[in-house]
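Pasting as-is:
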Amino acid sequence: MTHPVEVVERSLELAREGHNPTEIGRLVGLPRATVRDWLHGHVPHRSPGGSCVVCGGDHDLAALPPAYVHLLGLYLGDGCLSPHPRGVFKLRISLDTRYPDLADECADSVRAVMPGSRINRVGYGTWSELYSYSKAWPCLFPQHGPGKKHERPIRLIGWQWEHVGRRPDLLLRGLLHSDGCRFQNTGRGGWSHPRYSFTNTSTDIRAIFCVACDLIGLRWTSAKRTIYVSRKDDVALLDLFVGPKR
């Protein structure tokens, strides 16, 4: 059965607002299973050419490159989407100007995920903004919605977890490069060893970070809004794919 585009779009909008499949199904008058499939990326196409029902573009969410997982981490940490005319959205990632290599890597990830879109940068003193325009950004980041991230639910959907499950290291790299750091922890007696911390106001984003740690086998502890990875072996493992910011 083919459903009207407006119904599909409304269902995805309700999901971005934090409603679950049961609630959405009740609101739009459809079975929960149908809504659940849409939220997992199995949305109907507008045409035999495979156009996305949300943006009209032609993309396969299941075939996104590994760089998407890194970009997802950056988006969850320091990214946002802004609507522009004619259905175009602007992806903005805030970056610390002290770490030019991180900015270059962010640009590489955007280029890998959205090769047809221009990448621009603008500086604001101690920080800069990397941005790119596309109608498809809300499809790739369905966590987009009104208000600040810590004031609304932020949950990954099925196809996103599949990508994260394959490369949790890239998600942790993106999250730590946005809202985390590697620092030297010291104590009485003169001992000193490296430690990682991830600080984010959103409970949901911190939970996503912890799940990614669990997928790799990293042990973590929490204190208020910060997650720590402190044990020597776990820090050494993170050093293999994160390391100090540059």
